[in-house]
Amino acid sequence: MKRTPVVIAVLCAATVASSVPASAAEHPAKTLQRDADALVAGGSPGALVELSTAQGSIKVRSGLGDLRAETPIPWNAHFRIASFSKTFLAATMLQLVGEGRLSLEDTVDRWLPGLVTGNGNDGRAITVRQLLQHTSGLHDYLSELDLGTEEGFLRHRFDRLSALEAVKLATGKAPEFAPGTDWGYSNTNYVLAGLVTEKVTGRKWETEITERVIRPLGLRETSFPYTSPYLPAPSARGYDRFPVEGANPPRLGRRVDVTLMNPGMGGGADGSINSTTEDGNKFLRALMSGKVLEPALLAEMKKTVPAPGLGEYGLGLIRTAGSCGGYWGHGGSLPGYLTGNGVTEDGKRSVMVSLNTLTPYRPGAEIPEGSPLDPVIEHALCGTR
Known about the structure:
Blueprint: E1 6-10, H1 16-19, H2 22-41, E2 46-53, E3 56-63, E4 79-80, H3 85-98, H4 108-111, E5 117-118, E6 121-122, H5 128-133, H6 150-156, H7 163-171, H8 188-201, H9 205-217, E7 239-243, E8 252-257, E9 274-275, H10 277-288, H11 295-301, E10 305-307, E11 311-313, E12 318-320, E13 327-329, E14 332-334, E15 337-344, E16 349-355, H12 374-382
Antiparallel strand pairs: 1-3, 2-3, 2-16, 4-9, 5-6, 7-8, 10-11, 11-12, 12-13, 13-15, 14-15, 15-16
Helix pairs in contact: 2-12, 3-8, 3-9, 3-11, 7-8
């Protein structure tokens, strides 16, 4: 099947012709389409990109959502947003802070006494802020799971691992550094953040996010899979290439369909939400526009520390330097799905990028540094307006 670039523009439920002047959307649409095509040319099966502004939205797609059926990614495809879920949970916990039910300086041990202990780990020395900012030093439980090879993934993709089991895996290893002395990305932090949320509220962390973020913002296509291996319809199939054993330099092997898996290993609070490009943009713009958090709480969320390889890390938010000033967001990656995004400081312009692969590279290609999504986000937020 030939890949034909397609562009649509959307303003709420209205059509482009009646809502957005052609001159306002034409150049950004061409840029987005060129970038989406480049992602597919670089090795991604498909790409879906949506730019949202006060004037409307522009959405483009390229490549395929199902390689066997040779069909494109659906315009309203659901996908696993992975670690972008952390932004939802961080915002939810900051609302609890605003209500006086939780403090960022509370220790983990205050809410989960005796859970984080052993091998040099000490929940009495780790604060909620450090969990949300990845400065706790806790080992990442995901590195203990055999999901990084084709054989390991296919064997373990439906395994079930509770939040408590994930914490036990992490605390079975010594911490990477003393709490508050460095920065290191660890999914264990958000597993614990989910458990703290449940202890504070007496309700599931999914319920709190639903009642505080999803429902008020009308994010109708955002949902929780719990341990279900299926995505809501419509969706694209996810594909990946795994490292070739013993290859030097490292390279990737054949493409494997990895659509079906349990995304809720470790309880899911660190990255299991399903959503769409439209809902993702709606959340980002609302967050930065002050519709989710009071100004003082949003300011706390935006207090950053250096995060090597990412930029600057706040509380579930990443700040990236752009040619038009810094922007905020939080990417996500799970087998079969890679998500990138960004929103301007004023919340007026945001972009969501979704690929149906975690490894958007050609067979045998050396694995490059940096994310191929960065230029797309930069062009969308800093290009012609």
